[in-house]
Every structure is written in structure tokens, then in C-alpha cells.
Amino acid sequence: MNIKSQKDFFSGLMFMGVGVAFAWGATNYTIGNGARMGPGYFPLVLGVLLALLGGIITFKALVVETVDGDKIGSMAWKPLFFIIAANLVFGAMLGGLPIIGLPPLGLILGIYALTFIAANAGDEFKFIEVLVLATILAALSYGAFILLLKLQFPVWPAFITA
Length: 162
Fold this sequence. Notes:
The chain is mostly helical.
């Protein structure tokens, strides 16, 4: 069988893989039913839907002819590195790293670090735009997670709040 669109084919396979993983992981929890949902119900339904969507996309990539075949390009290493690094730094700043003696630095500084590191993944970096974005994200995150949801994790570094 001939693959008509490589991008769609491998995207569909990725969706199917993630969907199956979610559905399989959901079986470790109580599923329940539609009227009385358990903690595994939503991940199971989401996983099944994602796997079905992936199957449709993969089938379409094998059957529907595209203009140029959408070949897969080279790996975008720079964006991949900065996006993963931004998430790792955010996690380390939010929770701290006791192994190296890094205390939790809080949600606000973590979001600023996340935004500034992730902004380096693009082709251009505009400091003022990134600063405005980080400020808006920090304010919205504070409002959503601290004020509305009342989650208990550090907002500021310990040396500021102490």
C-alpha cells in the first residue's frame, strides 16, 4: 500500500498511540458508567476518541491523494529543545529540586522562566512582547489556580514570603 501523505500518516499513528495509551491507562481506575462516572471514565473515552481520530487520519493518508504528498521534513531540533527545556525548568522552579538544594521558586517566577525560555524556540525573540505575555500568563494563572481553584503550592519564592 502506498502512503499518499507522510505527514498525515505519521500524525495519525501518533494520535492512535497516545489514544491507546490513555485508554489502557484508564483501565487501572474505576470506569463507572455514563450516569455515574468513575475517575477512569474520561481518560478512557478521550483515549478511544483520539485513537479513532488517528485511525481516520491514517486511513485518509493511505487513500486520499494529495497534491505534493506532504513529505516529512527534517527534525526541528531548536524548538524541540527549548519547549522541553522550558517545561523542565518550570517544573523544577515550581516544586524545587531538593537533590541540588534548589528550593521552590513559585508559580510566578516559574511562569516567567517558562515563557522566556519557550520564546527562544521561534525564529525571532521580542523582549517586550514576551514580557507582556509572561505577565498576562502569570496573572491569569494566579487567578485561576490560586484564587479560584484554591490550589496549595508556592506562589513566590520562600525568601520573599518569609
